[in-house]
Predict the 3D structure of the following.
Amino acid sequence: MNRRFYLVCVEFPTKISKREFEIRLRSVGDYKVLMDNAYLVIDQRGEYNSETLRDKIAKENVTGDVKIFVTRTSIDAAWFLEPGINDWLTLTI
């Protein structure tokens, strides 16, 4: 399996920008909101790298000055988050 995991952190100027951004994330693949403005994105087919993923989710995405940080993660991770997210992370990675 070529599945890749990315941590995407975003600073939104407005709530509208956040909704638009999450719609755009859905076009890339599965994602979970880890905490406010931090997302775990799963590229099921392994078709992106950090730069191409950034460009895909930022292109035609949001209004205003949105700041985006994208990095590919390893599957070695630890967390204390909301119970539903903890369970999803345990099952997914």
Remarks:
- The helical segments are 15-28, 50-58, 83-92.
- The beta strands are 4-11, 30-35, 38-43, 67-73.
- The domain at 4-92 is CATH 3.30.70.240 (Alpha-Beta Plaits).
